[in-house]
Automatic annotation (TrEMBL):
It comes from Sagittula stellata (strain ATCC 700073 / DSM 11524 / E-37). This is histidine kinase. The lineage of its organism: Bacteria, Pseudomonadati, Pseudomonadota, Alphaproteobacteria, Rhodobacterales. InterPro entries: HATPase_C_sf, HATPase_dom, His_kinase_dom, HisK_dim/P_dom, HisK_dim/P_sf, Sig_transdc_His_kin-like_C. Gene3D superfamilies: 1.10.287.130, 6.10.340.10, Histidine kinase-like ATPase, C-terminal domain. The chain crosses the membrane at residues 9-30, 154-177. It is an enzyme of class 2 (transferase). Residues 248-458 form the Histidine kinase domain.
Length: 460
């Protein structure tokens, strides 16, 4: 039961109410003790007045008056004179004297708790002011046995009443909490469980109905979250269907364009001036279309295969990439350079690292050629204590703000018109597969610099 919200609330309510009753009990038992002692003083005063009215009372009658008053003797001060009015044998010495005229609330509570705890009877002297100004002082001597018995009886009645009040209060609060909080919370949980079974079904989105402001705010927040999640799932499903269709179209289109490339090779051999002038543009267009299809197919795979790690010469791989790019540069005023130690060995998948480096160099080449201005692309690599660093730097126009904002997001980070926006996401995915990072170190009107960082791991 204590594992539930309502059960814990019930338990804590009982504890707190009982604690409050205890805090009330101590002043209450102190007040009861004070009233008990004052009643003894009043009864003793009445008995003494009877004797003062007729000082010829017999010893038996005096003893009866003292017994009815519940005291052993009575001392009365009238007209500045202290007089022993009634007396009887005291069974022992007086243990302590209490003056009710000067007692503070703290003293009364302390004395009451002490008398309630200490069970042995004692002889006490009680001093108080006579009622109706019938003298300056009245003093009695009495036994505490009857006082403690009365206090215990009163305390038990108070505790029983407190327990009953605690149980009733806790039960009412328990029912109120279940009605106002627990049921709405369980209802929200039920909505969440039903929504989790079919999150794409908009009919299962919760409709806020709670009357408690905080619960209604929670339901509204849950409604907004479920609505966004349902929309995201629908969009993801549509994108998955679109991706499958695009992948199939790209696959077939790539085959068609590859055949077209074979025909363009022969077209370039034509002696017709118009054909010679249009053939290079046709070849470039087909090449870009083939590249787009290949990138789309590569990104459309569920995931890149795990890299097959091996030690390879990075300088040789860099040279292969740059040689392939030099063929694509043609007559453009673009130079390629490298600053890679001939003996630099890197641990990774040569095929995937080649694709990553080729994508970065190709992007830089296309950006510079698009400006129609001369430029330079440089590849530098070196080894640090715990990683290999590869920098690809160009003197191109830099990345536009939108490309920087969506740098590694597919279809959104394209830096040039007609680009697919897949190159950098593919590179980032390949590098992450090696446990490394791809970072844009700088990009402005003077050029851009990308850094590949590959961890050495356990290599020495």
């Amino acid at each position: 039961m204590l594992t539930s919200l309502s059960g814990r609330f019930l338990f804590l309510t009982v504890i707190f109410v009982m604690l409050a009753e205890v805090l009330i009990f101590v002043p209450s038992i102190a007040r009861f003790r004070e009233d008990f002692l004052e009643s003894r003083l009043e009864r003793a005063q009445i008995a003494s007045l009877a004797l003062l009215a007729d000082d010829m009372l017999s010893e038996e009658l005096e003893a009866e008056l003292l017994d009815n008053a519940g005291v052993f003797n009575v001392v009365l001060r009238r007209d500045s004179m202290r007089q022993l009015v009634l007396t009887s044998p005291i069974p022992g010495e007086v243990d302590v004297t209490f003056d009710l005229r000067e007692a503070s609330a703290w003293d009364l509570m302390r004395d009451a708790v002490y008398r309630l705890i200490v069970g042995e009877p004692a002889i006490i002297r009680v001093i108080g002011a006579p009622s109706r100004d019938a003298g300056q002082l009245i003093e009695v001597t009495m036994d505490t046995a009857e006082l403690r018995t009365a206090m215990v009886d009163y305390g038990l009645r108070i505790l029983v009443l407190s327990a009953a009040i605690s149980v009733i209060t806790a039960l009412l609060l328990f029912l109120a909490v279940r009605r106002l909080m627990v049921r709405p919370i369980k209802s929200v949980i039920g909505h969440m469980m039903r929504y989790a079974e079919a999150p794409e079904d908009a009919r299962r989105i919760i409709a806020p109905s709670a009357r408690v402001r905080e619960l209604r705010e929670a339901e509204q927040a849950l409604q907004a979250m479920e609505t966004q999640l349902t929309q995201a799932l629908r969009q993801k499903e549509r994108l998955a269907q679109l991706g499958g269709a695009v992948a199939r179209v790209s696959h077939d289109l790539r085959n068609i364009l590859t055949s077209a490339q074979l025909f363009t090779d022969r077209i370039e051999m034509s002696e017709d001036p118009a054909v010679k002038r249009m053939a290079p543009k046709l070849v470039n267009s087909i090449s870009r279309a083939v590249s787009l299809c290949e990138n789309t197919l590569a990104f459309g795979r569920a995931e890149e295969p795990a890299p097959s790690l091996t030690l390879f010469n990075f300088a040789e791989l860099t040279n292969e990439v740059l040689e392939a790019e030099r063929l694509a540069i043609g007559d453009s005023d673009l130079s390629l350079s490298e600053d890679v130690p001939a003996s630099l060995m890197i641990r990774g998948d040569p095929e995937q690292i080649y694709r990553a480096l080729a994508n970065l160099v190709r992007n830089a080449r296309q950006a510079i050629i698009a400006t129609g201005k001369p430029g330079e692309i440089s590849v530098a690599a070196w080894a640090e204590d715990d990683a290999w660093i590869v920098n690809v730097t160009d003197t191109g126009p830099g990345l536009p703000p939108k490309a920087k904002e969506h740098l590694f997001q597919p279809f959104q980070g394209g830096a040039r018109k007609g680009g697919s926006g897949l190159g950098l996401p593919i590179v980032a995915e390949l590098i992450r597969g090696h446990g490394g990072t791809l970072t844009l170190k700088s990009s402005d009107e003077s050029g851009s610099c990308f850094e590949i960082r590959l961890p050495m791991g356990g290599m020495t």
